[in-house]
Design brief:
By secondary structure, the protein is an all-alpha fold. The longest helix is centred in the middle third of the chain and has 20 residues. The protein has five helices and no strands.
Amino acid sequence: MTLEELKAQAGKLSDIERELLALDILGPDQPSFSSSEIERAWLEEAERRYNDYLAGKTKPVPAADVTARLRAKDSKLNYLSKGCPYG
């Protein structure tokens, strides 16, 4: 498989699947970030999402729907707590 084919396949994954793949690829030697760097990154992401919402690019999703989707993906999420070196 070429790198381009791999990228195309990875682009078809859900957000969480891409995140899990990235964690697998990075392995235990992944770069570490300070709490302030992580906080800043989340703040930037929250602001981006809020601005997208205000611009009409995204719609709010009820918490019950989010929870239901996460439960449906539970088998993938269990990876984080069972056997994952980061969980």
